[in-house]
Amino acid sequence: MSYSVFDLETTIKKSFKRTANCFDxxxxxxxxxxxxxxxxxxxxxxxxxxxxxxxIPDHVTMxxxxxxxxxxxxxxxxxxLRAFLKRGGRIWCCQYAEYLLxxxxxxxxxxxxxxxxxxxxxxxxxxxxxELWKQGIDTPDIPEDLLIKYLHGDVNNTERIFLGQLxxxxxxxxxxxxxxxxxxxxCTTEMEFNGLHVNVQQAESDRAILVEExxxxxxxxxxxxxxxxxxxxxxxxxxxxKSCLIFGGSVKYVKWTPTLEDGGMTYVxxxxxxxxxxxxxxxxKDRVDALEGDQHAKITELLQKFKAGKRAGELKxxxxxxxxxxxxxxxxxxxxxxxxxYTEPKPEWRGKNxxxxxxxxxxxxxxxxxELSVRNIPFLKALANREKIAKDLxxxxxxxxxxGNKKGMxxxxxxxxxxxxxxxxxxxxxxxxxxxxxxxxNVPRDDFDVLLGRVKSYVKRMFSSRFGDDGEMIEIDYxxxxxxxxxxxxxxxxxIKDLIAGVDFxxxxxxxxxxxxxxxxxxxxxxxxxxxxxxxxxxxxxxxxQRAYGAGATAIAASTGMSVDEVKKLxxxxxxxxxxxxxxxxxxxxxCESTRWPTMIREPLPDNPSVYVQxxxxxxxxxxxxxxxxxxxxxxxxxxxRTGREAGFYRPAIQNWPVQGVGGQLVQFVLGxxxxxxxxxxxxxxxxxxxxxxxxxxxxxxxxxxxxxVVAEVVPIMESVPAILKELFxxxxxxxxxxxxxxxxxxxxxxxxxN
Length: 755
Hints:
By secondary structure, the protein is α+β, with helices and mostly antiparallel strands. It contains 26 helices and 32 strands. Among the domains are: 170 residues, Ribonuclease H-like superfamily/Ribonuclease H (Nucleotidyltransferase, domain 5), CATH 3.30.420.10; 139 residues, no CATH class; 62 residues, no CATH class; 85 residues, no CATH class. The longest helix is centred in the C-terminal third of the chain and has 30 residues. It is globular. The two termini are 39 Å apart.
């Protein structure tokens, strides 16, 4: 292996949610640093944009960097880098490797070079350059000698970390895992660089539909509100108001209230000029002055006059304090308006805040509103619809604030008509990929939504081919990946048999729950499309997915609309059908307990918050070399009594992390294979591009004439997981990894493509 450490310093302009955005022409490479094995580090300083070209000697087989994707994206279309990758060149990202070596623990997620350099015997340098950046000084304005010194430091420290990590990886027997994940990192770099094309005209049209829908449904909800005091304006974005409206409670509002004395109004006093009558009483001056002729003469005869001096004969006046009826006395007083509520909350939804009368306020987040929508209450269904529409608008389109500023996914469409989202490898606790700025792994499904009376979301149809009418989008996804991974890890014989047979697990669970033959349930769901059975299968589908990822009975019931008893019966059915799954989870727990080490973490007991217990950590290593580190949590009272321990490993995490993590790991391995296939074919001469991955699927932007060829060649690669496992880890994989391919003019209007 001949490696070259590689680091860039660039300008720092932030745009489209990216700091030092490499897709912004205003940003450019100011300096590049390199260090080969046993050679002093060297740097190149550039005075102008477009001078930079990555340097990779022919003998180099691996590029090493820290957060290397940043540097690669600035170099991605350079001929030398493409040639390096085409001849099989590999990469090593020290930031990513540290995350994997540390078992994805929080302290290793998105770690910086300075965070870990001392662990590898390096020196923590004083970063004057970082301080200048914090002050807003751009890179070209930093003294060249200072910047170059900083760059040399980073390059040398990166090499030290890399060599230390390589030794650790060999000792822990996880070199293959790390190297294959680095191949996946190359693929996501390609996806970010290619970006997703957005049909802005379609997006604006769909947004207009949602704005109109939101207006209608908001008016409908406003009509359900009781008559409110004029001073109280209901705010649908207020958690307190929503809690009081849904569950009952009193909302505070402020009202100006007059100050009363003896049952009458009081006023601010003002001076008013009065004439003085002969009997000492006061007469309002303005009223006397308004009189004319004899009336005025008669009245003035009854008023006091000056008898001498300059004002002799003039009427005497005096300012008198009187009520200013335009200024009644009063103050702002707090009142409470009581809402009756529509339904009862669950105790676990209770928050720390209270309402006007100190009654509890309950959480009304999206998941809770979704759960409430399955209760047969029209208002709650309408509210859930409003939440869905408002979320789509604010997240995937845009909203405009009072100052005219836009916020939302469409603000990330760059000048090339694409969104260059981030695919993150080292943020989650399971090692599964995440997405940000914007999150394009959480695009809403387009299933038909009974509540909305249309597909759940229009978002996917804005993602269309960059090749226009000559192109289409391809989605190739694994079938029931989480169940397949359960079969791989657990080795349960019946589960493996069913996977090989292509059993519909949702229908099988439903048949066991109902006590009906599997064939009859399949027919009713898939052939007859009996609405009742289709609905039950959908509920079971939610159970299957969440159960595989560690959700408990209460959580599954909340999200599916089933009762807790129904969910528990399904869990019993699953454990009878596939006992090997539970046995696998027990083995993970046993591994954590046998490897447990103490920590400084102390957490309060759930039933006695004043008592803190020490929580340890333990680990489980998968047959695919992935390391998972679990942290204990304080146990409930009955579990403490049963086990004699104060803390234990959290069962939902035990059930979730290995299944989700190994699924993500295998997908990353496959992404690496896909990257090598596409780069060796020059992206089908530029006619097919990898653009996104969403946990268990891959998106490709392709010219129509290449669709069948791409599908025919990509499907076998994605289904080759058993061969990959045998090649890398000598694992005889007992289950297939089938995929399905669809293609269409956009990501919503897809049709099955036969391989």
